[in-house]
Specification:
Layout: E1 14-16, E2 21-22, E3 27-30, E4 35-38, H1 41-53, H2 59-71, E5 74-76, H3 96-99
Antiparallel strand pairs: 1-5, 2-3, 3-4
Length: 100
């Protein structure tokens, strides 16, 4: 029984693993354990788009990104931190002198 591959959603920011190497003839090497993948012509186009934009921009790129993240050749890029809202409660009701 084979399971369907769930593509990485469009717009997901990604980063190529530093150990991933493109061999120039449609092959990628990297991951842990180390492996070699041969890309189809469509896969090579998707790889170029992932390199250029750093994000999933097409259905083919989403499928390839899933295969590469599963293999450890590509990783989701963490989102930039956002400002947090914090509420501080100082329990001093009726004790103004202790607050000072």
């Amino acid at each position: 029984m084979s399971r369907a591959l769930v593509p990485v959603p469009p717009g997901t920011p990604l980063v190529i693993d530093p150990d991933t190497r493109a061999l120039g003839d449609g092959r990628l090497v990297g991951g842990t354990p180390r492996r070699m993948l041969r890309l189809s012509t469509l896969g090579q186009e998707a790889w170029r788009s992932l390199q250029g934009d750093g994000a999933v921009t097409s259905a083919a790129a989403g499928v390839l990104a899933r295969r590469l993240t599963d293999a450890g050749l590509l990783h989701p890029r963490p989102a930039a931190p956002t400002a947090l809202s914090v509420t501080v409660v100082v329990p001093t009701h009726g004790r103004v002198a202790e607050l000072e």
